[in-house]
Structure formats: structure tokens, C-alpha cells
């Protein structure tokens, strides 16, 4: 069929425990969930998908230009009507001619995307990227919300590779009302009829596994996890043991990941070195997909694992009040007044800078400018610019903290959710400079004067690989106190703000290695 050649997975840094819910509500309705991941105010399914996708490409050592088929899956995409694969493709620098598909409307969407990728590879595609990301939500006092976590996974697939997908099957049966979200509603809900829900889950799971050509004998089972108990109740129907389910389970620490539930568990099992994995999804309605992944011993990597880059650990606990604020349920509301207005067409023109850090080299003096428009910062010439993509790494030159009430109006809503944030000037490097820092570790000794002008650097005989350009940026993924002058940073893509109902995405910075 096809094979997985690279794996990426991501979960937000925030966590809320079952005890925090019990303190707030006097009870906790998500059986088997000890804590769950919570997206920060500037994260959504698209930004989490970007995080997983970049990790998968890194693990597979695949250039984005090699991807000719892309899928993005989420039961809760940030927009109800917009093909987000265009934005995601631009964020990870895919070719504009790559085929793109979006999958939504079900917690089964992640495996539906994987299924479609297999079909594409059997047809005429050569390299596919499948991305699943989700952050379910329910009513605050409902079990769906108590279990609802956040996370993403991505897979690079080719026709041959270390982790072969050797079998697949699907099954469906009509079970309306088990889990649904009506048009115009934000919260997922269900009728909550326990026996009915359990029957829908076990019948479809069992039916999909029974449809496989060969009876699987997996070392690990990545199974849909609406909570921490239901997957184990389906063990008999799937013909597997509870230990195999526990081997790949992420629900206990991350919560219900919706359409990303099975993909994240599959990514974890591959990263942990399991040789035979059964992945079984379930979507309300109801339907299920079963996929068997086999890692042959002779094709395993020298370290015993399929290439994988994962970031699933979280170390920032939230109280229940902080959890509600991050979700935007409890905020102070937006301030009155204007603020900077950037039209959607203007924002679109700046996408190469905001997504891919595209600077420009002045054709008159060779200095770098960011953004590459208008007069050159060094020589003042109104000349053309040669596009130069920066490396996404650098050093903080100046930083301050924007406290409550200090943010411009367009950022106020996000600040009401996330609190204070860092605003910095950073020296972003070219690829050569970034590699020099990684090898020599001498970044702490470079002062801001050495970085202020690309032209002066060349005049003083500094190698072009050491060039930097100064850029303003917002901090994320850390407290403002964690950003200080001289510290190393890396870039990521997050929500910037929303105007006219359209969310603007762009780069932010975080401490290197986060």
C-alpha cells in the first residue's frame, strides 16, 4: 500500500487536572482522564497542525517542495467555511500546485484523511502529508468538555518506507445523537444515553477490525478515546487486550483529542518503537476506520524508531478560572476605540514575511531588509529586493512586557485571555548564521551593535552566513519574564488577531527549544 516515513506530534503547554474541575464543580465527568492539554489564546487547530507538520517534515528529512498531496483534518476547524489547506500549505511552504483536501465534521476525520492519502499514493501521488489537529469543546458542566483536550499529529507518507500500512477496513451503521454539533453552535454535545453510546462505539470499532483481511496481533492499539474508559470497553470488540490499548493511550494525560485522537496515539506508538500497531477511529453517526501499521525489523532505524519528532509534554498547570480565561469564556471584553487596521488584501501581500520570514536583499547595497518593501533601511534606495528566507532562529535585542490595558485594541481580546505578553526586537538570522550558532554556541557574546546593519557587517568583513536582520515580534509559549536580551529564540506561527471576522496568522517567537 504505502508507508509512513516521518512522524510529528504536538500538544499545547498548558494543562488542567481533574482535581481542578472537581474543585470548581464538585465532580468530574471524564472517566480515566487525570489531566488534559489546553490550547493557549493564540492557538487553534490550524496552528497546532502547523506545529505537527513541521515536525513530521523534519523527521522525514523531506523538503516541503516534495509534498504533492496535503490533507488537513479537524472536527473543529477555526472557520466553518474556508479551505484551510491553502493557509496550512503556505505556512509550511508547500508548492502551490500540491493537491489539497480538508476533512471535518467527525472525530473520524483524521483517519479519513489518512485513508484518502493511501488512495492518492496508490494512484499518482508520490509524497503525501496528512495533518490532524483538534481542540473539542463542550458545555462547561458537561462530560464532553471535562474530557476535551488539544493536540495534533502529522505523517509524511510515501510508497515505501519503514512503517508500512499493510491493511485497512471501514464500517458504518446509523447511530444518530451520540455526539454532534449543530450549525452555528460552538459546543459539541450528545444525548448522553450510556448504553446507546457504548453500543455505537463498540459495534463500529468491532466491525472495522473484523473487516481487515488478516486478524491483527498488535503490540499497541491506537483507539479513539472520548474519555479514558471507553477505549478499554471496546477491547473485546476489537479482539485486543487492554495492555495494548494502554501502550498507545494519550487520553489520560492529554484528554479527548477529537479527530487527532487516533493520529496522536499512532504517532506516539511509532515514536516509542512498537513494531505492529492497530489504529481504530470512531466517528459519531456512526463509522469507524481500522488501519494496521507494520514496522519490519530489517527496515527499522539504527536507534530502533521510525523517524519522529514529538512535543507532547506540558508543564504549565492552570486553575479552573485560568482555564476559562484561556478559552475566552471569562474576559474583560474588548476596549472601545480604533487601533491599527490592516485590510485582508494588505495582510495577504505580507504572507511571505509572516509565514516564511521572507526578507529582501537590496540590489543597490546588498543590505537585508524586513519587510522587503519601500526604501532600503541602510542606503535609502528605492530598489528591488532579492527574496531571502530567514532561518527562524535568532537572538533577543530588546524586550518589554505589555501588561493588562497596554495592548493595542486589536490585541486586547487575546490579552484578556492570555494575560501579559512579551514584545521584542529580535535579530533573525540567515540559514548560515543559524547553523554557526548551533555549532559554535557563541550567540551570547554577540551584541546588538554587531547585528544592527547587514551592510556594516559586510564592510567589516563579516561572512554573509553571519547576517541578521532586526524584526519586531510578539512572544508566546512562555511567561514574559522568560524573554531577556541576549537569549536565543525560535519562531512559530500563531493567531495574531481577528478583524472583520477574519483571523490573521503570523510568526511569533518563543524561547529556543520550547
Automatic annotation (TrEMBL):
Residues 434-449 have a biased composition (Basic and acidic residues). GO terms for molecular function: acyltransferase activity. Transmembrane segments: none annotated. GO terms for biological process: isoprenoid biosynthetic process; secondary metabolite biosynthetic process. Pfam families: zf-ChsH2. Keywords: Isoprene biosynthesis. Residues 350-381 form the ChsH2 rubredoxin-like zinc ribbon domain. Residues 432-483 are annotated as: Disordered. Signal peptide: none annotated. CDD domains: init_cond_enzymes. SUPFAM superfamilies: Nucleic acid-binding proteins, Thiolase-like. This is ACP synthase.
Amino acid at each position: 500500500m504505502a508507508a509512513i516515513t516521518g512522524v510529528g506530534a504536538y500538544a499545547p503547554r498548558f494543562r488542567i487536572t481533574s482535581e481542578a474541575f472537581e474543585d470548581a464543580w464538585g465532580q468530574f465527568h471524564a472517566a480515566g482522564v487525570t489531566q488534559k492539554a489546553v490550547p493557549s489564546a493564540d492557538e487553534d487547530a490550524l496552528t497546532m497542525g502547523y506545529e505537527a507538520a513541521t515536525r513530521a517534515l523534519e523527521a522525514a528529512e523531506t523538503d516541503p517542495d516534495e509534498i504533492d498531496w496535503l490533507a488537513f483534518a479537524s472536527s473543529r476547524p477555526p472557520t466553518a467555511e474556508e479551505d484551510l489547506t491553502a493557509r496550512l500549505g503556505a505556512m509550511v511552504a508547500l508548492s502551490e500546485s500540491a493537491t489539497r483536501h480538508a476533512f471535518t465534521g467527525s472525530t473520524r476525520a483524521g483517519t479519513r484523511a489518512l485513508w484518502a492519502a493511501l488512495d492518492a499514493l496508490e494512484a499518482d501521488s508520490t509524497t503525501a502529508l496528512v495533518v490532524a489537529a483538534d481542540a473539542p469543546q463542550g458545555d462547561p458542566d458537561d462530560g464532553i468538555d471535562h474530557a476535551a483536550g488539544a493536540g495534533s499529529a502529522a505523517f509524511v507518507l510515501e510508497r515505501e518506507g519503514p512503517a508500512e500500512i499493510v491493511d485497512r477496513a471501514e464500517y458504518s451503521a446509523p447511530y444518530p445523537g451520540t455526539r454532534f454539533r449543530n450549525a452555528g453552535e460552538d459546543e459539541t454535545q450528545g444525548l448522553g444515553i450510556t448504553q446507546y453510546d457504548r453500543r455505537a462505539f463498540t459495534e463500529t470499532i468491532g466491525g472495522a477490525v473484523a473487516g481487515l483481511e488478516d486478524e491483527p496481533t498488535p503490540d499497541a492499539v491506537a483507539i479513539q478515546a472520548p474519555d479514558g474508559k471507553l477505549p478499554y470497553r471496546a477491547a473485546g470488540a476489537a479482539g485486543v487486550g487492554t495492555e495494548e490499548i494502554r501502550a498507545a493511550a494519550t487520553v489520560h494525560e492529554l484528554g479527548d483529542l477529537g479527530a487527532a485522537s487516533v493520529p496522536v496515539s499512532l504517532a506516539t506508538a511509532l515514536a516509542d518503537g512498537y513494531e505492529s500497531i492497530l489504529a481504530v477511529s470512531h466517528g459519531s453517526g456512526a463509522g469507524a476506520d481500522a488501519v494496521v501499521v507494520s514496522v519490519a525489523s530489517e527496515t527499522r532505524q539504527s536507534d530502533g524508531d521510525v523517524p519522529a519528532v514529538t512535543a507532547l509534554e506540558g508543564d504549565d498547570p492552570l486553575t479552573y478560572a485560568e482555564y476559562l480565561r484561556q478559552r475566552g469564556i471569562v474576559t474583560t471584553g474588548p476596549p472601545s476605540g480604533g487601533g491599527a487596521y490592516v485590510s485582508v488584501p494588505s495582510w495577504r501581500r505580507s504572507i511571505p514575511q509572516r509565514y516564511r520570514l521572507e526578507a529582501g536583499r537590496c540590489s543597490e547595497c546588498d543590505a537585508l531588509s524586513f519587510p522587503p518593501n519601500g526604501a532600503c533601511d541602510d542606503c535609502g534606495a528605492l530598489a528591488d529586493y532579492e527574496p531571502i528566507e530567514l532561518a527562524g532562529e535568532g537572538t533577543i535585542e530588546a524586550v518589554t512586557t505589555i501588561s493588562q490595558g497596554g495592548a493595542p485594541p486589536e490585541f486586547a481580546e487575546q490579552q484578556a485571555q492570555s494575560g501579559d505578553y512579551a514584545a521584542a526586537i529580535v535579530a533573525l538570522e540567515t540559514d548560515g548564521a543559524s547553523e554557526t550558532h548551533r555549532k559554535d554556541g557563541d550567540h551570547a557574546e554577540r551584541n546588538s551593535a554587531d547585528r544592527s546593519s547587514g551592510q556594516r557587517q559586510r564592510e567589516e568583513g563579516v561572512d554573509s552566513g553571519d547576517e541578521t536582520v532586526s524584526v519586531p515580534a510578539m512572544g508566546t509559549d512562555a511567561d514574559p519574564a522568560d524573554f531577556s536580551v541576549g537569549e536565543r529564540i525560535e519562531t512559530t506561527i500563531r493567531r495574531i488577531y481577528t478583524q472583520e471576522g477574519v483571523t490573521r496568522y503570523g510568526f511569533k517567537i518563543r524561547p529556543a527549544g520550547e
